[in-house]
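Protocol step 4 of 6: structure prediction from sequence.
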Amino acid sequence: MPTIKFTQDHEWIRVEGDTGIVGITDFAQEELGDLVYVELPEIGKHFSQGTEVAVIESVKAAADLKAPVSGAVTEVNASLTEEPGKVNADPMGAGWFYKIKITAASELDALLDETAYAAFVKK
């Protein structure tokens, strides 16, 4: 079963082997409101943990999607450029943003599990 971890910036990463699938949490999409634009990263580009990877714009605000771990982008969810509302409809499923080849698996240890994230959001 894949491991899912969360950041305090409201990103999630589902880890499958050395690949991570990344998106924003349901809490984040609710806070942002209806998404109107998504700028996805370039395939092959390497990002360090915590750096800006993608841009999200909603009717309320613009936000940066940051890399939960270091790695290289291997795939993007291109359908989001035409249908950013997929993120609102299914943030933990069809609304994923990109896949990353994880280069520093130890960075996952610093992320929150589901219980810790739920407690963090309640604060």
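Step 5 (inspection) to follow. The first strand starts at residue 3 and ends at 6.
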